[in-house]
Amino acid sequence: MSSITIFGAGNIGSAVAGIAVKSGAYVQVIDRNADKAAAAADGATGAKFGEASVSGDIVVLALPFSAYEEVLVSYADQIAGKTVVDVSNPIDFTTFDLALPEGARSAAEYLAGKLPQSKVVKAFNTTFASTLATGVNDGAPTVVQLASDDEDAKNDVKAFIEAAGLRTVDAGALKRARYLEGYGALQIILGVTEQTPWTGGFKVVR
Ligand SMILES: NC(=O)c1ccc[n+]([C@@H]2O[C@H](COP(=O)([O-])OP(=O)(O)OC[C@H]3O[C@@H](n4cnc5c(N)ncnc54)[C@H](OP(=O)(O)O)[C@@H]3O)[C@@H](O)[C@H]2O)c1
């Protein structure tokens, strides 16, 4: 049985926690608000950020990219060597441009640079939370796009997503996160300008 720790009990954290529980994994959710963490998904265990120890072999950062630094400060030692999933769309919401640290090509590559012993996987950033929570996008299983330089880590993430009834496609190496993050940003722009619904977005047909 796999074990998955999710940082963040917001829209994506709760949706991914639901997927992880449905996959049959042991699921821990860590949030600054322990009650919110405990309520993220039926069957998940909640814990308080800064106090909890990471129990999962797969760690999902379901936080704003700007909050990653706090995880790195408090938990870098604990997540070293684990599979770490970056869900972020690092957007400046005043301009809708990508907002990355100086020199970074993508949030995922930046994170990998900060966690050299971990196996970073980009996932979940090209699907709105509602289509993750329901597992359905426009009548078909929601398709999660993945990228990573570590095939085993990518397969572990793929396995829990597909065990919950969603589908995946493999975008390739972690550097493809640059495209996935542009795709995620465009999807948000279309949502904010009300050209596409938050319950839909891009649909990958397999
Ligand atoms: N929403 C979507 O449809 C969607 C789609 C694709 C990707 N994403 C990405 O998913 C990530 C989360 O988005 P979301 O929509 O789930 O956001 P959200 O609903 O606002 O939830 C954010 C979560 O992050 C926590 N958090 C915020 N700042 C923190 C900090 N400084 N330290 C620790 N925890 C902090 C919040 O904790 P508190 O409860 O304590 O405030 C909350 O649990 C973002 O990177 C976003 O780009 C979102």
Overall description:
InterPro entries: NAD(P)-bd_dom_sf, P5C_Rdtase_cat_N, STEAP_metalloreductase. With 206 residues, the protein is an alpha/beta fold. The protein has a single domain (3-192), classed as Rossmann fold, CATH 3.40.50. Helix content is 35%, strand content 23%. The chain is built from 7 helices and 12 strands. The protein has helices at residues 11-22, 34-38, 68-79, 107-114, 129-134, 151-163, 177-192, and strands spanning 3-7, 26-31, 45-48, 58-61, 83-86, 91-92, 97-98, 119-122, 136-137, 140-141, 143-148, 167-172. It has an 8-stranded mixed β-sheet with strand order 3-2-1-4-5-8-11-12, with helices on both faces. A two-stranded antiparallel sheet has the order 6-7. Strands 9-10 form a two-stranded antiparallel ribbon. β4, α3 and β5 form a beta-alpha-beta unit. The model has no long low-confidence stretch (mean pLDDT 97). The structure holds NADP nicotinamide-adenine-dinucleotide phosphate. NADP nicotinamide-adenine-dinucleotide phosphate is lined by residues 8-13, 31-33, 36, 49, 62-65, 67, 70, 87-89, 124-125, 128-129, 184.
